Structures are given as structure tokens and as C-alpha cells.
TrEMBL record, chain A:
Component of the proteasome complex. Component of the proteasome, a multicatalytic proteinase complex which is characterized by its ability to cleave peptides with Arg, Phe, Tyr, Leu, and Glu adjacent to the leaving group at neutral or slightly basic pH. The proteasome has an ATP-dependent proteolytic activity. This is Proteasome subunit beta. It is found in: Cytoplasm; Nucleus. One of its GO terms (biological process) is proteasome-mediated ubiquitin-dependent protein catabolic process. Keywords: Cytoplasm, Nucleus, Proteasome. GO terms for cellular component: cytoplasm; nucleus; proteasome core complex, beta-subunit complex. PANTHER family: METALLOPROTEASE TLDD (PTHR32194), PROTEASOME SUBUNIT BETA TYPE-3 (PTHR32194:SF10). It holds the Pfam family Proteasome. Its main location: cytoplasm. InterPro entries: Ntn_hydrolases_N (IPR029055), Proteasome_beta_3 (IPR033811), Proteasome_bsu_CS (IPR016050), Proteasome_sua/b (IPR001353), Proteasome_suB-type (IPR023333). Belongs to the peptidase T1B family. It comes from the Eukaryota.
UniProtKB/TrEMBL annotation, chain B:
Its main location: nucleus. The 26S proteasome consists of a 20S proteasome core and two 19S regulatory subunits. The 20S proteasome core is composed of 28 subunits that are arranged in four stacked rings, resulting in a barrel-shaped structure. The two end rings are each formed by seven alpha subunits, and the two central rings are each formed by seven beta subunits. The catalytic chamber with the active sites is on the inside of the barrel. Keywords: Cytoplasm, Hydrolase, Nucleus, Protease, Proteasome, Threonine protease. It catalyses: Cleavage of peptide bonds with very broad specificity. It comes from [Candida] railenensis. GO terms for biological process: proteasomal ubiquitin-independent protein catabolic process; proteasome-mediated ubiquitin-dependent protein catabolic process. The keyword Protein transport does not apply. Its EC number is 3.4.25.1. This is proteasome endopeptidase complex.
Automatic annotation (TrEMBL), chain C:
It catalyses: Cleavage of peptide bonds with very broad specificity. One of its GO terms (biological process) is proteasome-mediated ubiquitin-dependent protein catabolic process. Gene3D superfamilies: Glutamine Phosphoribosylpyrophosphate, subunit 1, domain 1 (3.60.20.10). PANTHER family: ATP-DEPENDENT PROTEASE SUBUNIT HSLV (PTHR32194:SF0), METALLOPROTEASE TLDD (PTHR32194). The keyword Cytoplasm applies. It is found in: Cytoplasm; Nucleus. One of its GO terms (molecular function) is threonine-type endopeptidase activity. The lineage of its organism: Eukaryota, Fungi, Dikarya, Ascomycota, Saccharomycotina. Belongs to the peptidase T1B family. This is Proteasome subunit beta. The active site is at T20. Keywords: Cytoplasm, Hydrolase, Nucleus, Protease, Proteasome, Threonine protease, Zymogen. PROSITE patterns: PROTEASOME_BETA_1, PROTEASOME_BETA_2. The keyword Heme does not apply.
Amino acid sequence: MSDPSSINGGTAVAMVGKDCIAIASDLRLGNQSLGLANNFEKVFQFGDKTFMALTGLASDVITLKETFRLKNNLYNLREEREIEPQTLANLVSSTLYEKRFGPYFIGPIVAGLDSKTSKPFICGFDLIGCIDFAKDFIVSGTATDQLYGMCESLYEPNLEPEDLFETISQALLNAVDRDALSGWGAVVYIVTKDKVVKRTLRTRQD
Amino acid sequence: MPGLSFDNYQRNHFLTTRGYGQPTATSTGTTIVGCKFKGGVVIAADTRATAGPIVADKNCEKLHRLAPKIWCAGAGTAADTEMVTQLIASNLELHSLHQNSQPRVITALTMLKQHLFKYQGHLGAYLIVAGVDPTGAHLLSVQAHGSTDIGQYQSLGSGSLAAMAVLESHWVPDMSKEDAMKLCADAIESGIWNDLGSGSNVDLCVMEVGKDAELYRNHLTPNVRSEKARSYKFARGTTAVLRESIRDILDVEETVITFGSASVDAMEVDA
Amino acid sequence: MNGISVDINHLKKGEVNLGTSIMAVKFKDGVILGADSRTTTGSYIANRVTDKLTQIHDTIYCCRSGSAADTQAVADMVKYYLQMYASQLPFDEKPQTKIAANIFQEICYNNKDNLTAGIICAGYDKVNKGTVYSIPIGGSIHQQEYAIAGSGSTFVYGWCNENFKPEMEREECVDFIKTALAEAIKWDGSSGGVIRMVVLTEAGVERLVYYPEDYQK
């Protein structure tokens, strides 16, 4: 617990379903064991169907959120189109590796649907930009260990959006209940071809 | 590498002095091997990536393409092996375009060793470089500090001892392609079973003189997850929702209507 | 580090080490270089058939000891500089061994804070015939009749001193090196494998390999 990425706490997870993805995070922002805020969302939108979650040191989460907002806006202006999840993943990777010898203390997740093919895409990163391509789920944050356990047991492939919502929600909720640094509310985004649903979950408040 | 930024270095160093440790980067606590055979070379790797004691990726790719017929297997810090490999692949392509000839394995190796030496071991990349070029088939290895080795067979990574045990006991000179593939796969499997840092599947790449390189992704899958005995699907409505917002995404269709020839005639003002 | 008590035995963590037995000896027709073939990372033998005898020019070679990465990098630099130098020489003239040795010395001295490299540079040239230069850690240079270096060399200082003869015959010199290295390998845990030799004479380069069963008595 004495490493910079677990000072503020926070957790995120993404999953692939049938022609859809879900990405979720808790809402806690803390200073060690002291809770500071219960509205600190860690999932950010880049285009209609491209999302990124950022966990870790809160100052770096905000810095990188703004950095990527800038880079994304420049991309939109230059390319006159929205960024694909794949492209964003490579952008994240190279941005993080640029700081190889003085890294940001974060663990990003990128999730989304390809704008043309609507193929689901998720991936995770370590703090220096190594991409972890996964076909099923990606976890990140202070409840990583708990989430691996939950996801390995609850996840199954080809879930419909509504079933995927239940699975990712229960995985996140039960994981953060066993992490003192995460919790205090949660948000889930379910992304399908023609709509994005954002749900705020009812959770424990301790 | 041009463009590396040390902006956060002082801050992170300050954090270190205040007793905050460094988070663990993903490492490919790995088994990688390579072996020459008559008329070619084969390299192989396991597919486990770890972050400390956690398995971060159960089926990652450790075989990287430097050029169409030059491949390398990477062990060490995952981000470093990936990035150093991408950089050298780019420079190698530019070099071969400039020279107007096929890239050579020794060129790739020299670029790698000079780059890694410059970083004095801070880039944790341990690579087995193999390939075919106009001068034949080659098998070489580079370590993080920039030293290189040549050999008929090589192994690197945390599982290199287990793999080397297999290579040392079963390697013979002038093997056939099939025998070399089997030997490499066996050596990786030895790492998968006996080394904690290695696991999951065997990836393999064969490079033969005069032929295209062949990548066998998941050549062996000795650790397939068994089907779950029962489903853990939750009934819809299990999770209590406080708020919901829906954003519909509409596809805008654009249809261009072209008018008939009559209207075209009407346009001609000076007819 | 204060410049006076310099820690010369630092090896970066996990660095590949040439815990070595190497030597080069002048003889009647030229010079012979010899080396074991073991490279280690800690207690693991990373390579048991290493070639520590590196060609710098046609008949100029070096024996490397210390960090594998450092010595390879330095040897590559010297090789490059010597190619540049040789290209400026009149046709049919080749660089002298002392040129190579002095480039080694220059690089090793200028970068002594960052290098762990103990090098023996030896070669044959028409002007000086066989010559041997030792460039130990720190970047000094010493011309010698014969030179020994590496961790295994400590065990054979006395024996070499007692048994070296100037102007030996080729076979006698090969035996001298073989016996010395066999003994060094026997007592030094970081040395081992095969004994490699390079014979540099008027006639050119000849490589020799002796397997454990050949040199172990």
C-alpha cells in the first residue's frame, strides 16, 4: 500500500459481450484511508463508442485525462473523424512509454466498438505502456486481485448487453467490497452498436 | 530513444524518498528459445505475462517481427521488449529501403545492441534474434546491457534453465525442420511446467532459407481452460440502479438525388 | 566515488560477466592468443562456447575480460576506428598492432568510470612482427612479452613467470598456453569450457580449439 498508485484508491474493469462492451469504475477518491469524494468517475469518453478508464494516482488520472482529451481533439481536427479504440490504445501506449524513466502512476483501460465493423475491443496497460490485449476482460486499480478472482469465475463469453451489465456490475461490486480503498459508488457504461447506456449503481457507503 | 521525457522523474524520486515504492511493471517472466536446423532457424516462446505474482495476460505475444523474415523473441520488461522491437523494426525497414536490399539479421542485432548499450541496462530487454537473409540463416541473442551471443541453440528468460536442460540433452547437429520445431516446443513446455514465471501456450516461428517466415501462434495449447460446470449468469435486475442515462447513436444516411436529363437541359441558359 | 578509491569491481546488477582466463604470448613467428569459453550471469553459465577472441583487423585480435557488453562495445568501436584508419593508409599497407592497442587504451581511459573492461590486444604486423599489449581496467597500456588477464589468471601468474621462454617454437608456445589455461580453468570457477586459440603469423590467421578431454590431464 506504500506505492503511489494506491494512495487515492480506485478500481476499473472492462468486459466484452456479444457485439457489445461494458466498462465500469468505482467513484471513490481518498487520501490513504480517508475518503474525500464519492463522485470521482474514472471512465472517460473519447468519441461515440470509445472509452477509457484511468485508475491510480488521482493527480496523474486527471493529468492524463486532460492530456488524452487534448490529443483526441487534435486527432479529430486533423483526421476529421473519431478515433478508433485500436488507435487510442496505441496512442496511450506511446504516451506512457514516453515517460519510461519517470512514469505516471496509472493503469489505463481502453474499451470500445470499432466504428465501421462494430467489433468489440478492449485492452489494458501497465504504467509504462505495455498493452495487454484480452478477449474477455481487463481489470485495473487497487482491487485488481479481487477483480481477477471475480471475473475469472463470473465471466462467460457472448453475453447480451443486459446480462453483461449484471455480470460486470456484480464483479465490480463484490470486488470493491473487499477493498478498503475502492467503492463509494460505481458507474457502468454498456456500449452497443446504436446506444450507450450509463448506469450509476447503488452500493455500500462504508 | 528520441523523445523520452524525464518530466516526472524528480517527482517520482521525491515520492521514493518519502517511502513510496515503485509499482511493478508487466514483465514477461518468460521462457524463450531458438534453435538452428538444416536450412533455417526456429524460435519459440511461452505466452504468460506477469505483474509480480499476478498473471497479467494468459495469452500474450512474445514473438515480434523485426522484418518479414527476421523475428525475435523477447523476455524481461514487457514494455521494453515491445517498444525496442518496434523501434528497431522501423529503423530496419528504413535501412533496407535506403540500401535497396533485404535487411540482415546482423544489422538488426547491431542496432539492438547499440541501442541497449546506450541505455546501460535500464531498458530491460532480453532478446533472441533469428532470421534468414541473403547470407543465410542466423540465430543470435542480446541481453539488456548490450552484450550478444551466437549459438546453434539458445534460451533466455526466467525459464531458460528449464529450457536449456531440454536443449542440452536433446539437441543434435543438422536437425530437420520438424525435429527443431519439436525440440523448441519441448523446451518451452519444460519452462511452462517447471518455471513459475512461464505458462499457458507455445508460440513458434519458423524461418527457412528461400521461404516466407511462418508464425505458428499457439502451436501447442496444453493449458486449455475446461468448460465451466455451470453458468454464473445473474438474473436481470439483480443489480440495483440509482440512475440511468441513455445516449442513442443514430446513423446519418445521406442520399444524393440526381435529376434526370430534362432538368439538365433546363440548366443550360445559353442554349 | 572520490576518484582515488575507485570501485573497479562494480558490475551492474544482472550484467553478463566474462569471469575469464585469457592470455596472449609472443613466439618466434608471431603471436598466439588464448582464452576459455565461459560467460556467466551470477552462477549461471550463459554461454559455454563463447568466443572471447575478437578480430579487430586482418591479423590484429583482442582477448576480452570483464563485462561482456562493455568489451564488445569497445571492440566494435576500435574495429570501426581501425577500418577508418586503414582506409587512409597507402595501398598494401596494414595498420600496426600498436595503433589498435592505443585506440583501446584511449577509449578505456576516457571512459574508465563507466567501463569494466580488461583487454589484451595482440597482433602481427610486418614492421613489429608479433606484439602483445595489455590494457587492464583503468585504461593504462603495457607492452609485454606475454600477457595474462581475467579472474583465472591469478592462479597461473607464478607458473607462467617460471615457464615462459622468449622466442618459443609454435608447438611449444601452444603447449605453454594450453597448460596455463588448463590450470586457470581448473582452479577458477568462472572459467571453463573449451580453450580457443588464434595463431597470428606472416601466413595469416589460424584458429585452434581444444576440448576438455584434450587439455584435462
